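Explain this protein:
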Amino acid sequence: MNKSIFSMNTLSKYSELFQIVGVIGLIASLIFVGLELRQSQRIALAEQHVERTKVFTEVINTATNNGIAYFYRDHDYDKYELFIHNFWHMFWNVSETDYLKYRLGLMDEGIWQARYAIMKRNKSRENYTSRVCDLAERVWQGKSTQLDSEFVKLINAIPSKDCT
């Protein structure tokens, strides 16, 4: 008698094992799909934020080109101060986007540390004239109410020069 490993009797003996292996494979593939969906959602959230930041940047650039200080109607800024005022609004929006990407795991640690160092330098207001320091503080006070609360906590923890 020629007994084959693929005979019905032999295969039926291993049917429970095959079912267990099949279930394990199914569970593994469902976990993989779930992780992929989670990653796709993170990327989509970051992309939405990037697109909003791009639109915001266009609005600020248009305001700057037309001599308008964003979010501050009555001002006595010269051209340089107007540019700085509007730059700070853009800077904090872009920085918030960087923070979101980092928090979602979409930014490398080294890149985040470099960006965060720039945020710290700008928030500290060292080497600013009193006028630019006041301007930076005014923008941060208004802007911080519009940004992610965790990001605001991070930035507020940075020591900054008193502008007075």
About this structure: Residues 15-65 form the longest helix (51 residues). The two ends are 101 Å apart (CA to CA). The chain has six helices and no strands.
